[in-house]
Amino acid sequence: MLRIEDHDRERCRPEYERGILDDLDWLGFMPDVYPTRMFLAGRCDGRQSDREAVYREALDRLVEQDLVYACDCTRRTLASSAPADSGSEMRYPGTCRDRKLPLDGRVGWRVRMPGGAETFDDALLGRQVQSPADQCGDLLIRDRLGNWTYQFAVVVDDWRQGVDLVIRGVDLLPSTGRQIQLARLLGRDVPPVFMHHPLVMKAPGQKLSKSDGATAIRELRAAGWTREQVFAEVARLQR
Question: Quick one: fold of 51-197?
Answer without folding.
Answer: Rossmann fold (3.40.50)
